[in-house]
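TA notes, week 10

Several of you asked for a full example with nothing omitted. So below is the full record: structure tokens for the whole chain, then the designed sequence directly under it. When grading your own attempts, check the secondary structure regions first.
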């Protein structure tokens, strides 16, 4: 689009002259505005990605990539289901589980609890809860010993420690001569885990799979089978393949369906933050418009001489588009360097700022995630760069068009 003549003159106009320092100052502020906007966009989007990755990881410590259950809440042929799952090349591990609601009692303290029965030998294949133990291990869950592992916050709510006794009350009941009585069973606290998600740390309790089957009268059945995939982002596609294949008679869910509202909210927030921060780049682009409008006014005689020497309106338009585009490109490049550098070194910059001003951005006493996580996605960077460049280019069109419409006779009349 641009020929050497337009590029050469456009670059020359970008450099300051004695009589147009103010125009050059506005050009500089436009560059810095675009750089600031691109830096802010890249950094904030990286932080949003980091928070999403951190919370997703904590959710997946307790929630498997895929879950297969029966429509009636029971899965009797779970061994066959596990075999069918392993036939999929994406599945790397499976484990059965039992899940039901209950209440835990210790002294006068009572708390509603989600009871999950697991096989300690198979559980590491589908979740990371074994790595999140702060006291004890999953191996202490042995069939018939009626031991229980609690979330850290749940243990604090009940006021129990490892070795204490708690009573589990199940929704089912026993019919006795004295009437209908709830089913009660005493468990020994054998371990405590902490995954950093209050929802699980405050309400989840783990017991052995066989104990859960006996307690909830399931016989040999389980609630479902959990599976881990090689690539967690392939979960929706694998779920579709399984539902269209041999597991069409079962309820198959992937991890994205758990906390679906939270993931949707994060996507909406990322879009809104992107649009809001894009206003910084838009304001800088408007500065480019004002810069070029003033430059066109200042260079009327030069434009008239160029037109008299044979320059076409298209060439005149190209000259001023070169200058505006150059401002946008330089600002965008500075923003890329600043944004990528800040996003990649956020774990160093944030502690330095906290020490310098003596405060915590995310107080560990309030927030579960006390550090600003950063996850740089290059596709986000290229999107930001493309939008910033497009705004810079569009901002040159009107002033350049106005310059191309200038008549030589009108411009030279008072010269």
């Amino acid at each position: 689009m641009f020929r050497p003549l337009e590029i050469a003159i456009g670059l020359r106009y970008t450099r300051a002259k004695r009589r147009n320092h103010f125009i050059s100052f506005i050009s500089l502020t436009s560059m810095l505005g675009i750089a600031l906007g691109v830096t802010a966009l890249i950094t904030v989007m990286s932080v949003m990605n980091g928070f999403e990755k951190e919370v997703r990881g904590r959710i997946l410590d307790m929630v498997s990539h895929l879950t297969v259950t029966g429509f009636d809440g029971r899965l009797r042929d779970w061994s066959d289901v596990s075999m069918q799952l392993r036939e999929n090349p994406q599945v790397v591990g499976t484990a059965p589980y039992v899940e039901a609601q209950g209440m835990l009692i210790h002294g006068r303290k009572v708390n509603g609890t989600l009871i999950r029965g697991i096989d300690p030998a198979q559980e590491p294949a589908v979740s990371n809860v074994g790595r999140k133990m702060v006291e004890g291990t999953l191996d202490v869950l042995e069939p018939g010993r009626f031991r229980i592992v609690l979330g850290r916050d749940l243990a604090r709510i009940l006021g129990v420690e490892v070795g204490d006794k708690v009573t589990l009350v199940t929704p089912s009941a026993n019919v006795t001569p004295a009437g209908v009585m709830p089913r009660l069973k005493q468990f020994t606290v054998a371990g405590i885990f902490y995954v950093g998600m209050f929802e699980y740390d405050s309400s989840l309790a783990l017991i052995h799979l066989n104990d859960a089957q006996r307690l909830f009268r399931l016989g040999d059945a389980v609630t479902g089978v959990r599976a881990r995939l090689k690539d967690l982002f392939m979960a929706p596609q694998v779920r579709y393949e399984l539902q269209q294949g041999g597991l069409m008679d079962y309820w198959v869910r992937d991890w994205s369906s758990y906390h679906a509202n939270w993931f949707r909210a994060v996507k909406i927030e990322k879009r809104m933050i992107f649009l809001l921060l894009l206003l910084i780049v838009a304001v800088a682009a408007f500065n480019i418009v004002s810069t070029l409008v003033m430059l066109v006014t200042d260079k009327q005689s030069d434009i008239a001489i160029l037109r008299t020497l044979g320059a076409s309106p298209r060439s005149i338009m190209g000259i001023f588009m070169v200058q505006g585009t150059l401002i946008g490109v330089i600002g965008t490049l500075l923003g890329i360097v600043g944004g990528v550098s800040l996003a990649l070194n956020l774990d160093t910059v944030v502690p330095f700022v906290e020490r310098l001003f003596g405060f915590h951005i995310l107080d560990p006493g309030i927030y579960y995630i006390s550090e600003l996580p950063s996850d740089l996605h290059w596709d986000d960077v290229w999107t930001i760069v493309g939008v910033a460049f497009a705004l810079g280019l569009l901002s040159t069109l009107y002033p350049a068009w106005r310059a191309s419409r200038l008549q030589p006779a009108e411009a030279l009349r008072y010269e």
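The chain has two domains: 4-57+262-412, 66-256. Use that as a sanity check on your answer.
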